[in-house]
Amino acid sequence: MSEDPSLTRALARLHKHSTPKELRAVYETHTSVTVTRLAAATGRSNGWVSKQLHRADTRMRPRGYRKRTPATPIAPPVLGPSPTVLRHRLSQRLAELRNHAGLNQTEAADLVGVSPATVMRAENPQESPTKHLLRTLCTCYEAPPQVCDELLQLWKDSRAPAWWTRQDLRVFGSRQTELGLRADARRVHGWSDRLVPELVQTAAYAHTIEAARGTEEPAEMAVAVLMAAQRRVRRRGIDQRYVLDEAVIRRRVGGAQVMDEQLTVLRTLAERGRIRVLTWDSGHCIPESPFELCSIPPLDETALCFPPFGKVYLGEPPPSAHPLSFFQNTMANLWERAQGPEATVALIENARTQLSGAGTVSTSTFTT
């Protein structure tokens, strides 16, 4: 079997003075790469490469690990809710049971014999209660046996590896919650005045943005995760609808080829009625920042996401922000005032013509 061309190119870019971050990106993106191969590509020893990988906080594979190609095709994975969604559902159910019992968190803590902070953490989707605490809370709330069994199964399923982990991908920090909710939505409607929405970006467009951000997360890994999320979204067949400011299709991100590929994707989506462009002369006052409204059926909630800032609110935002209804009404007005499919396709084609001869733009002009 011939080697993956992308792996060959990645190894060829390594050299004697490659940074720990560059080595980590190749190692974590390509699961067939070993420390020995990285040592050969850099002209260094295995010990030096291992030291650099550990310095970069790399998730190391066990010694002797080798990714095996199955002899028979594997059935496509069941696209059930992600552990992120299940943890939110578990926290919801615990809060519902406590409220039904007529208790606040402090009163529940006193009855169970734990601190209020422990009950608060149990109802926090970022945390996870122990199995013993979950059983104790169910008893305290006088939950029926079938409800207790339901929550225990939910607790067990919520501890399973995330879909990106099963694909040997790594998601950093708070990005796990944001990605876990957005990729499991049944409907995503959004507005963007800066960049193409992440769930419809091409790999080259996304790589240009990630490389410009200069974060701890390797650009190659971030792009691989995003492409996996897009595949999950397509398999789930979610309802995607985006309104883009005209600046999005006319802003040069990367070179001419990068933009041509991205605009081709946008044109296809426009023809399907999933993308509309709000022109500069529409006279409509645009929102302060890009946002997405994600409907998540298992939670019976709408998540409000702000992709540029990595923030996500399930249900109503904090009192300091606009209510959820404000963003829902804003999205409806934007969709109404934006150009229809034919006019949007014409605008995208016009942008392709104007940008076809453009060179690469400095990424510092669009970093968030």
Task: Write up what this structure looks like.
The protein has 368 residues and is α/β, with parallel strands linked by helices. The protein folds into three domains: 5-55, no CATH class; 83-158, lambda repressor-like DNA-binding domains (434 Repressor (Amino-terminal Domain)); 171-365, Endonuclease, Chain A (2-Layer Sandwich). The chain is built from 17 helices and six strands. It has helices at 5-12, 20-29, 35-42, 46-55, 83-100, 105-112, 116-122, 131-140, 145-158, 163-166, 175-182, 203-213, 219-236, 246-250, 256-271, 324-337, 341-355; strands spanning 187-192, 239-245, 275-278, 291-296, 301-306, 311-314. The chain has a six-stranded mixed β-sheet, sandwiched between helices. A hairpin with a 4-residue loop joins β5 and β6. α12 packs across α13 (219-236). The radius of gyration is 24 Å and the shape is flat. The relative contact order is 0.10.
Mean pLDDT: 85
State the helicity in percent bands. Answer: 40-55%
Tertiary shape: flat
Q: What is the CATH architecture descriptor of the largest domain?
A: 2-Layer Sandwich
Highest-level CATH class of the largest domain: Alpha Beta
CA radius of gyration: 24 Å
Give the strand order of the largest sheet, numbering strands 1, 2, ... along the chain.
Answer: 3-2-1-4-5-6
Name the beta content range.
5-15%
Number of strands: 6
Count of the domains: 3
Give the biggest sheet: 6 strands, mixed
User: What order do the SSEs take from the amino end to the carboxyl end, as H and E?
Assistant: HHHHHHHHHHHEHHEHHEEEEHH
The separation of the N and C termini measures 42 Å
Number of helices: 17
Structural class: alpha/beta
Within the CATH hierarchy, at the fold level, what is the topology of the largest domain? Endonuclease, Chain A
Q: Poorly predicted ranges (pLDDT <50, ≥5 residues)?
A: 69-78, 359-368
